[in-house]
Amino acid sequence: MADIFLSYASEDRSRVKPLVDALEADGFSVWWDRNIQAGAAYDREIEAAIDDASCVVVVWSHQSVDSDYVRSEVEEAARRDILVPVSIDDALPPLAHRRRQAANLAGWKGETSGEYATLIDGIRSTASTSLQAASGRAEHPPTLPRTDSPSAKRSMYAAAIALTLGLAWWFYERANVSSTQEMGSIQPRPVVLLMDTLAVRGVYDQATVTRSETNADELARVLADLPIDIHKETLGSDWGREHQIARRNPTLVMIHRSAFFHAMNAEFGFSYENEAGYDERRWRLLYNAADNKLIAFLGFVGVENPDTQFLIYSRGTGGGWSDQDFRDRWQANAERRFPFLKGRVFTMPVPGGVIAGSFTTPEAMEFVRETVSQMIRPYSETLPPAQ
């Protein structure tokens, strides 16, 4: 039984191979169609592999969204609620599966943090739930082997040895824990979570769009040499991973104010000012709804993690963001809705404004680094000196 059944288009084989290698390096067993033996009935082999898997990872791409095989595999995985999606380019998944947030591995270079870490969390959670459900469906207890058979005796001896080694290891670990507690715990590095959208109108630089990346990817490069652990999260129109974000207990969440709006507008097609079909009233209603979703997200994570700080950035979509008074009122509104956020929400205009705002200019990079450094300083000062 494999942990993961990998569903993908055969045209993407070379792009998928590094992901398979990474998952196997992390201890997962992966079934993909290279494993089908010559002469095996293809459909039957596929069905058996999906039935045995505790998780199905689908790799969405321009090729896989048009694959009947992939769609069939995904339908079965969705029926069993064991589907974990991954995106490797800007292709939209089939309509029925767009509600599931996909880990964005477009441009992934093998790093184990960020979106890949999000994928691993999803796989482990899905596999754990699947195994528990399978255990609960068992109608009969397993048949125990005869204890007087040679094979049973060998199994008993092996179990005894394993138990002895396990106890020895447990005592060793306990001793190490006690020793660590006596010396004082080591402060982990601050976790900085970068959140933004793939929606084209929400991405600041055309080069970033071309690479199928988000502003968060640019920020990750700007902040790469700070003493922090960086994670990235891609936001879609129906994003709903608040609980998973809270579980990471981030030190700082850095999020684009208009990320939800741009993702939602990409779905609804309400256009933008000076474009055909633009309706200011409808546009404003959608923007306000997205803004409310953002503030609700801050409230959820803020109450779950009392030490988390939030840095909200924007070039100025929606108007007013470049004015300090406007940003102060926005911050006050968030604190009025969630009083426990007082003193934890900060706002930042992106240098260059609506027209030329970017995280790739020297001015912006210096500004961002200094802002984030100031916010994490109380945490990074407690880190042990570099060896």
Features:
single chain; 387 residues; alpha/beta; Rossmann fold; five-stranded parallel sheet; 10 strands; 48% helix; globular
Provide a descriptive summary of the structure in words.
With 387 residues, this protein is of the alpha/beta class. It has 2 domains: 4-135, Rossmann fold, CATH 3.40.50; 191-380, Rossmann fold (3-Layer(aba) Sandwich), CATH 3.40.50.2300. The protein is built from 13 helices and 10 strands. The chain has helices at residues 13-25, 42-52, 68-80, 115-137, 150-183, 206-210, 215-222, 242-247, 259-268, 280-304, 324-337, 353-356, 362-380; strands spanning 4-7, 30-31, 55-60, 83-87, 103-104, 191-197, 229-235, 252-256, 309-314, 345-349. The strands form 2 sheets. Strands 2-1-3-4-5 form a 5-stranded parallel beta sheet. Strands 7-6-8-9-10 form a 5-stranded parallel beta sheet, sandwiched between helices. Strand 3 (55-60), helix 3 and strand 4 (83-87) form a beta-alpha-beta unit. Helix 9 packs across helix 10. The longest helix has 34 residues, at 150-183.
What is the element layout, followed by pairings?
Blueprint: E1 4-7, H1 13-25, E2 30-31, H2 42-52, E3 55-60, H3 68-80, E4 83-87, E5 103-104, H4 115-137, H5 150-183, E6 191-197, H6 206-210, H7 215-222, E7 229-235, H8 242-247, E8 252-256, H9 259-268, H10 280-304, E9 309-314, H11 324-337, E10 345-349, H12 353-356, H13 362-380
Parallel strand pairs: 1-2, 1-3, 3-4, 4-5, 6-7, 6-8, 8-9, 9-10
Helix pairs in contact: 9-10
Strand content: 5-15%
Terminal-residue CA separation: 43 Å
Element order, helices and strands? EHEHEHEEHHEHHEHEHHEHEHH
Helix/strand structural class: alpha/beta
Query: How many beta-strand elements?
Result: 10
Strand order of the largest sheet: 2-1-3-4-5
Instruction: Estimate the global geometry from the Cα principal axes.
Output: globular
CATH homologous superfamily assignment of the largest domain: Response regulator
The CATH level-2 architecture of the largest domain is identified as 3-Layer(aba) Sandwich
Instruction: Using the coordinates shown, work out and report the CATH topology of the largest domain.
Output: Rossmann fold
By oligomeric state, this entry counts as single chain
Low-pLDDT regions: 137-147, 177-186, 383-387
The CATH class name of the largest domain reads Alpha Beta
Tally of DSSP helical segments: 13
Tell me the major beta sheet: 5 strands, parallel
> What is the domain total for the residues?
2
Q: How much helical structure, as a percent, in the residues?
A: 40-55%
C-alpha-based Rg, rounded? 25 Å
